[in-house]
Every structure is written in C-alpha cells, then in structure tokens.
Amino acid sequence: FSTEWDVNAGQFGILPEIWGTLYSSFLALLLGGFFGITIAIFLTQDFLPYKVELVLKNIIELLAAIPSVVYGLWGIYVLIPLIRPLAEFLHGTFSWIPFFSTSLSGPGMFPAALVLSIMILPTVAAISQDALRAIPHKTKEAAYGMGTTRWEAILRVMLPTASGGIFGALVLGFGRALGETMALAMLVGNSNQISLSLFAPANTLAALLALNFPEAGETEVSVLMYAACTLLMITLLVN
After folding, report:
1. Gyration radius (Cα) of the chain, Å
2. How far apart are CA 135 and CA 141, in angstroms?
C-alpha cells in the first residue's frame, strides 16, 4: 500500500494503481451508466420509429466488437486533441478545484475514462433494455390510467420496477471496466501517482501488468503476480 515503484531499490507499491483502477472505472460507470440507461429508455419506450430503433440498437451492440487497442488508438489521435482545448480552459479557469488542478498535456485519466465509458456502454444498454422489456405492458397502462405523463410513468414506475436488472447492468459494466487493459495502458499515462485531477496521468493494475511483465525479472514477476491477485480480489468483490 505504498506509492513508490522502484525496481532498483526493490520498492514495489501498488496503491496508485489500485486508486487508478477504481477511479477510472467509477468515472466510466458514471458516464457509461447514464448514457446506457438513457439509450435503453429510448429504445424500449416507443420514442423512435422502429427502423431507427433497430439501426441504433445494432450500432450500440457493434461497439462491443471493436478491439480495445483500436479504442486506444482512436483516443490518442482523435479524443485527446479534441478535448485538450476544453481541458486547458477548465484548468485555466478553475485550477483551484482539485479535479482541474493539472492541464492535459497528453494521456490522462479523463480520456481514459471516456473511452472506458464507451466500452461498457453496450453492456449497460443491452441488459437495461432486457430489464425494461421484462416489465408487463399492463404496468405502464396502469400508470397512464392513473393520469401520469410519459416521463412520470418512466421515472416513477418503469425505472423503479426494473431497478434490479439495471443495477445488475451497472455492476457488470463496472466489472468490465476494472479489467480493461490495452486501451487504459495507452491512454491513462502510466504515472505512479495518486491525484483527483481528471487531466493528470495515472496508472491501473491491468496496465501495470501488461507493460511490465515482458521485461520483468524474477522478483518483479512475483510482485506483479501479487498485483494480479489484488485485481482479481477487487473484481470478485464487485461481482
């Protein structure tokens, strides 16, 4: 639980990696969970024409088929240059807020969390759709019969009724985010530090394993196996 990682000195602290794993996954869950549930509502509550709904559903599901290394390359060459002006504005204006205390010079926590949220979006959206479709149609009809508007029926009746399935979708999405490797290794910055800043570089347990195993010595291999067991315990606790 120390913060120093120095192979030559024989110091191996993985607290920054534990922090980065949980922080990036939680940020991704906030973004991916919100948009995943929103998409599920629009695809199940008759907001869209059937053909548009079918096309959108297939596009969302196809996101799960894209390799994580492709997401990483897209994040490096498209996403980071795209959000850098916003990051510089937020840092220059609100640098006194811990979340914006550093500027985005390259890879960092925010682009990593954004890409991660896109990667868990199909899981959250698909399971949330199943949960909403499993509600008997008479439940919504009864809500309308009591005088609710469409959004009152959705927010006060449909979502609470499907809350068990939606919670399961969020937990599975969170577990998916915890174990993601290549996209995070390419985008998070691989810096052994603990920071609340969204734009500071960080590291995760999965990225630590992927980047250090190929050149690890005997001692470092045992340390990395311990880090792998730590990641396994975190994912088991979540699931």
Report:
1. 21
2. 11
144: three-class secondary structure by DSSP: helix
Beta carbons of 20 and 231 less than 8 angstroms apart: no
Round to whole Å and give the CA distance between 41 and 132: 8
- As given in the structure block, the two tokens for residue 164 are 């068990």
How many Å apart are CA 102 and CA 208, to the nearest integer?
23
CA atoms of 198 and 26, how far apart (whole Å): 12
Q: What is the pTM of this model?
A: 0.88
Distances (CA, A) of 65 to 74, 85, 112, 181: 15, 30, 19, 16
Neighbours of 219 (CB within 10 A): 11
| 231, 179 Cβ separation under 8 angstroms | yes
b/e sequence 29-51, b meaning 16+ C-beta within 10 Å: bebbbebbbebbbbbbeeeeeee
| pLDDT tens for each residue of 184-229 | 888 988 888 888 888 888 889 998 888 888 777 788 888 899 999 9
- 96-129 pLDDT tens trace: 888 888 888 788 899 999 999 999 999 999 999 9
